[in-house]
UniProtKB/TrEMBL annotation:
<dbReference type="InterPro" id="IPR051606">
    <property type="entry name" value="Polyketide_Oxido-like"/>
</dbReference>
<dbReference type="InterPro" id="IPR016040">
    <property type="entry name" value="NAD(P)-bd_dom"/>
</dbReference>
<feature type="domain" description="NAD(P)-binding">
    <location>
        <begin position="7"/>
        <end position="188"/>
    </location>
</feature>
<protein>
    <submittedName>
        <fullName>NAD(P)-dependent oxidoreductase</fullName>
    </submittedName>
</protein>
<dbReference type="InterPro" id="IPR036291">
    <property type="entry name" value="NAD(P)-bd_dom_sf"/>
</dbReference>
<dbReference type="Pfam" id="PF13460">
    <property type="entry name" value="NAD_binding_10"/>
</dbReference>
<dbReference type="GO" id="GO:0016646">
    <property type="term" value="F:oxidoreductase activity, acting on the CH-NH group of donors, NAD or NADP as acceptor"/>
</dbReference>
Length: 208
């Protein structure tokens, strides 16, 4: 497949880029500074907010790993609104979004989110709230999207086991009662969805 990765030099972007290359896909990195790329891949050197529909039309799938900097969490909303605007004009291109866990529901009736819990860390609350708003925007859009939430514990240094369990909008744990996923296994789950396209127009979640 012809795949582009927005933010390919970030933590999740690097893992997803490596997984996509390993699987033999044609990969383009969309980055602000191509000198930070370790891999020899095609590059579009652009800020996310400068991307146009023409930029993304050549691809089968575009993966967004955008993560707003601390203190500017509202950029989760504006960045994804920009992506929605250009992908609505290219419905043949799938957008797969690296999301967050804070917007997952804690009950089957979907009345309360993780971020609503009293013990939710204050440091992550602005990110969770704004990521939740961006997900709501996707659900109202005509873009062709999939939103993938990691587990509550998202481990950069965790091992690549090749094992994971998919869930939906409701927070779930593994057999040990843990909400955990390594970045490497998250990349596997995401690339499986990229290749299979089983959850278009849906938010899914993943744990080890």
């Amino acid at each position: 497949m012809n795949i582009a990765i927005i933010g390919a030099t970030g933590h999740s972007g690097q893992k997803i880029l490596a997984e996509a290359i390993e699987r033999g896909h044609i990969v383009t990195a969309i980055v602000r500074d191509e000198t930070k790329l370790a891999q020899d891949v095609k590059v579009i050197e652009k800020d996310l907010f400068d991307l146009t529909t023409a930029d993304i039309e050549p691809f089968d799938v575009v993966i967004s790993t955008f993560n707003a900097p601390a203190g500017k969490e509202e950029m989760h909303v504006s960045a994804n609104q920009h992506l929605i605007s250009i992908f609505e004009d290219a419905p043949q291109v799938r957008l797969v979004v690296v999301g967050g866990a804070g917007s997952l529901f804690t009950d089957e009736r979907k009345t309360r989110r993780l971020s609503d819990m009293k013990d939710f860390p204050n440091a992550y609350l602005p990110t969770a709230i704004n990521m939740g708003k961006s997900l709501a925007d996707y659900k109202q859009s005509s873009a062709t999207w999939t939103y993938i939430s990691p587990a509550a514990m998202f481990d950069l240094e965790g091992e690549r086991t090749g094992h994971y369990t998919l869930g939906g909008e409701v927070f779930h744990t593994n057999a040990q009662g843990e909400s955990y996923i390594s970045y490497a296994d998250y990349a596997i789950a995401l690339m499986d969805e990229v290749e299979n396209g089983k959850h278009v127009g849906e938010r899914i979640s993943v744990v080890n």
